[in-house]
Amino acid sequence: MMTPWWPFFGAHQPPFTRDIPVERLWLTPALREWQARFAAVVAEHGLAVLTGESGVGKSTALRLVWQTLTPTHYLPLYLPVSDAWTPRQLYRALARLLDWPPTPFADATERQVRDTLWTLATQQGRLPVLALDEAHLLTPRLLQELRFLLNFALDTTAPLAVVLVGHTELRQKLAWRPLEAIRQRVTLAYQLPPFTAEQTARYIQHHLERVGIDHPVFTDSALQAGHDWSQGIARRLNAWARTCLLAAYAAQSPLVDDSVVATAIHELQWAGTVSS
Hints:
- The protein is α/β, with parallel strands linked by helices and about 280 residues long.
- The protein has two domains: about 30-190, Rossmann fold, CATH 3.40.50.300; about 195-270, Orthogonal Bundle (Helicase, Ruva Protein, domain 3), CATH 1.10.8.
- The protein has eleven helices and five strands, in the order H-E-H-E-H-H-E-H-E-H-H-E-H-H-H-H.
- The protein has a five-stranded parallel β-sheet with strand order 2-3-4-1-5, sandwiched between helices.
- Helix 5 links the parallel strand 3 and strand 4.
- Helix 3 packs across helix 4 (about 105-120) and helix 10 (about 235-250) packs across helix 11.
- The model has no long low-confidence stretch (mean pLDDT about 90).
C-alpha cells in the first residue's frame, strides 16, 4: 500500500480538494456581498445574473447561497443548460425537475410547468429558485422564454426566482438590443472577481489550516508567484498549490520555495492541466 504524501506536511487529509463543506469555506468580501444581495433577489422573486471567468468560483458562490434555502420555504432547482436547447427542451427539463413526466405535447408540458410553479409559490408556500448553469450557452430565444416564465401572470409577482450562472460573455449577450426586455428584469448582475494577491495568500493559508497544517509551508515569494501564475483564479490556484506540495514532497522539502514553484509550474504547463 502506497504511503500518502500529505502527512509529510502534518496534514490529516489532502488539501485543496473540491469537497469542502459550505460552512468551512473561506469567504472573500465578494462572496459575502453576493450572498447578501442574492437574499434580496430571492425575497423579490427576481432574476440574478452571476458571471465570472472560468474557474473563478461561480459554483462555490452558488453552493454558498443554495444552503441558505430552507426546504420548508424554498424549492432549489439546478439545471445545467445546453446550447442545443429549444424552449421545448427547457420545459421538458423543468418538468423532470418538478417530478412531472413530460408529455409529448409541447404546449401541455409548458402549461404543466407553469401551473406547478404557480401552485408551489402561491398555494404551498415554497418558492422555486431556479439556477441555470452555463447560462452563457442560452440562445436569445431561450433568454426571451425566461422573460415569459417570470412574467406569465400579467406583471404580478413571479412564481419563482431565477439565477443565471455563466461566463462573462453572458453579460455581453444580455447587452444585445433584442434582449433589452429580459435585461430590464434583472434584479442583480454580479461579476465575481478573482483573488487579490493578499486574498490568494489567505486562501492558501485557510486550506492548509483546514487540514491541520499549522506552520508556514509556502514562502512569501512562492505565494506571490502562485498569484501571478494563477491570476487569482481559484481553480488554477488549487492546481498550482497541490502540484507545488507534491513537488516539495518528492524533493523531501518541508517548504515550497522558488525552486519548487519552478518545478511545479513546469509540470503544469507540460501537462496542460491549467493554462498560465
